[in-house]
Write a structure and sequence with these properties.
This is NAD(P)H-dependent oxidoreductase. GO terms for molecular function: oxidoreductase activity. InterPro entries: NfsB-like, Nitroreductase, Nitroreductase-like. This protein has 209 residues and is α+β, with helices and mostly antiparallel strands. It has one domain (2-83, 124-205): NADH Oxidase. Helices cover 45% and strands 12% of the residues. A four-stranded antiparallel sheet has the order 1-2-4-3, with helices on both faces.
């Protein structure tokens, strides 16, 4: 029930208090929660940028439809998916698995080859769409842990992807900005926090078969 109460408390914060900062201790908890997110095959084919630099955030503001959360929040999380799955992404995962579980890399070769085969069958467009969807799973963990810590967040898709990629130098790294999530603390002036949460009734949302 405590989890439900925290979810009822959270909302997509429209106006942050620019003077309140998330502590380093809580930031590490949030990073750990994102790190532990589920992902297909466990590959985590994304990178998460945490942007504090005011000058960088000012550059991103016009590319974010001038939404004030970009510059006023304590930290700006930018989830970036890999635009294409390369064999070395899988090799690195296999190496990490072997090291973490104290296994022989050769014993995992078959699993690595299987992933390369199945993912390699997909077009570049399908791969990019798939890796982008993985970032939504990580975002879910971020929103949940922020609510647990009573830190506000605002998941955002309203931004110019190409401009983000250009400003942050993502394209040359094989990355693509997929989601943005400012975090921090709500401003007392944000009237959105006082609005009742609108959700479909359970009987409309769920169907038992």
């Amino acid at each position: 029930m405590e989890f439900i109460k925290k979810q009822e408390w959270r909302y997509a914060t429209k106006k942050f208090d620019p003077h309140q900062k998330v502590s380093e201790e809580n930031l590490e908890i949030i990073k750990r929660a994102v790190q532990l997110s589920t992902s297909s095959y466990g590959l985590q084919l994304y990178k998460v940028l945490i942007i504090e630099d005011p000058k960088t955030r000012e550059k991103l503001l016009p590319a974010s439809w001038n939404q004030s959360q970009i510059v006023d929040a304590s930290h700006l999380f930018v989830f970036c998916n890999y635009a294409e799955v390369k064999p070395h992404h899988i090799d690195k995962y296999i190496d990490l698995t072997a090291k973490t579980r104290q296994l022989n890399v050769e014993d995992l070769k078959g699993y690595g080859d299987f992933m390369k085969l199945k993912i390699g069958e997909q077009s570049n467009e399908t791969q990019a769409s798939w890796t982008k969807h993985q970032t939504y799973l990580a975002l879910g963990n971020l929103l949940a842990v922020c609510a647990d810590l009573q830190i506000d967040a605002c998941p955002m898709e309203g931004f110019d992807v190409e401009k983000y990629n250009e400003i942050l130098g993502l394209t040359e790294k094989g990355l693509n900005a997929s989601l943005v999530a400012p975090i921090g603390y709500r401003s007392p002036d944000d009237n959105t926090q006082n609005l009742p949460k609108v959700r479909k009734p359970l009987e409309l949302l769920f169907e038992s078969i």
